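Exam revision sheet. Question 4 asks you to relate a sequence to its structure. Input first:
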Amino acid sequence: ARNTATEAALTTLAADTGENDPMHPDTVGHYIRALERLMVLEPLLAWHPVLRSKARVRTSAKHHFVDPAMTASLLRAGPEELSLDLKTFGLLFESLVLRDLRVYAGPLYASVRHFRDSSGREVDFVVESDSHQWAAFEVKLTGTHEVLEKAAAQLISFADTVDTQSSGKPVALGVIVAEGHAYTRPDGVHVIPLGALGP
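Answer key, structure tokens:
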């Protein structure tokens, strides 16, 4: 639960199980696979587009519970605790958005992935249809001007690195926020409050 929405390695997860007598990483791997079979965990796999740059695409999956409420419960994190720990709150919000994106993508036979390369460029979610059309999204708790400017620039920079002859152009770029109004910025990036998210 402490490593939700991250690509934490098995050694990191094992170290978190106890300071004096931690689990062996192989044991942690067995537990994770069992929880995936029970549909408690659903990893977020990496997206592998062809890039124009020479950066290598990372392949590690991100850890996610099927419902972020499980994470909050395991961390014993209620509203007061989360209001004091915005980093954890942001990761839980990211999991919430992932859950909704997967629900909306399912009937469209689309997959939801994440992207990160060796240069540090990353995007929270890439939704790709079975016809290989794709859209990229960043997730932010707040929709302040500074946050939106940075997120939009990150999405545009990411889209510019994708080889569009191989992967096609994105059908949409969007920043998903917790609240506010839905609109399209002058640069074409959509700002989407979670309540307005849909297929």
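Marking note for examiners. The CA atoms of residues 61 and 119 lie 17 Å apart.
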